[in-house]
Amino acid sequence: MLNPLSQNRSYIATYIMVWAAIIALHTLIINLFYGINSLTSLGDSLVFNVIFMIIGFSLWYVIRFNLKEKPSVIDIIFNHLLVALVIIVLWLGIGYFILVNLFPNNSDYITFLRHSLAWRSVTGIFYYLLFVMFYYLILYYDDLQEKLKTESELQKLVTKAELDALKSQINPHFLFNSLNSISSLTITRPEKAQDMVIKLSDFLRYSLSHSKNEQASLKEEFENLRRYLEIEKIRFGNRLKFIFDVPDKCYDSKIPNMILQPLIENSIKHGVYKSSEETEVDIRCREENDYIAIEITNDYDPDTKKPVGEGVGLQNIRKRLLLIYGRNDLLETVAEKMIFKAILKLPKN
Q: 288 forms bridges with which residues in the sheet?
């Protein structure tokens, strides 16, 4: 992994500017407080700070190499103490050697240089600690971002798996009943059996081809619902009546595919299955501010038990809405008197 300071020109420029400020401050301190002339002070500051600037830049690779072996905390501390000792000794030794040879006739400065090695050592430790803290913060930030990215990808995979599982739950009773009806119709009404096979084939083809897509147009969804109801119409005959009241402006809206299917299945379950009279299923759509409101209503026999609670289909819809939109208030169901109503509100894209 490259040094983070070298990944962007602005980082390098900032790094150099910081050290330029340190060099200027160092020069002023030596010149003003220790009485060393300006040229010598600048030379002193340049040598020691440029050397540590190079060391500090290279320290990143030492830390990265140290962490590759995943050492214990004690080993990390020991390694840093050892590295700090070696770096400070080399830093002071190289700086001392260069400056002694750079100003060999300045005895006052040479004396000052020898006496300053102690506080320079403390400065070196301070520099080292700053670099270590800075690099470890970068490593911690990078690791955190990597974990967040991994968690986000895993969450997307989990969410996709959950959505695929929820969308693939086509009511098996519908398939079994349809096949049984086809079997019966092949003897009594072959032409109806053929019609039912074609409609069932189209319905399943749409359902399977959209099992991995997030959204479909409302027009496509309503067309597939119509296929489903026409299949059920063949089975139930006059016991089932359905009405679509959908303005053209609603057709282009995008909705999670197959999300309406359980609502229609629910209407058949609580309406036609439990009634010997004609049951009407109304599918309506309207725009409400930032929402597309889809309302599915069915009547049911008042002599049968009133629908209580929610089945798997409605629970799956709520789970899908929560996964897609992060909200659990988009589906409302009302059961009163002879009417069962489901209102689905979907945010416009």
A: 291
Residue 339 φ then ψ, to 5°: -125, 135
Alpha carbon distance 57, 49 (integer Å): 12
Which of the listed CATH numbers 3.40.190.290, 3.40.50.1010, 1.10.1060.10, 3.30.565.10 matches domain 168-347?
A: 3.30.565.10
- Name the percent of the chain in helix, strand, coil, to the closest 5: 70, 15, 20
pLDDT at 250 over 60: yes
Collapsing DSSP states into helix, strand and coil, what is residue 313?
helix
Task: Render pLDDT for 270-290 as a digit per residue (tens, 0 to 9).
Answer: 777 777 778 889 999 998 888
| pLDDT digit string, tens, across residues 29-62 | 999 988 899 999 999 999 999 999 999 998 888 7
The alpha carbon of 206 is separated from its chain's Cα centroid by a whole number of angstroms, namely 29
**CA dihedral of residues 298, 304, 308, 313 (deg, nearest 10):** -50
Rounded alpha-carbon distances, angstroms, from residue 102 to 19, 47, 49, 51, 271: 22, 10, 16, 15, 100
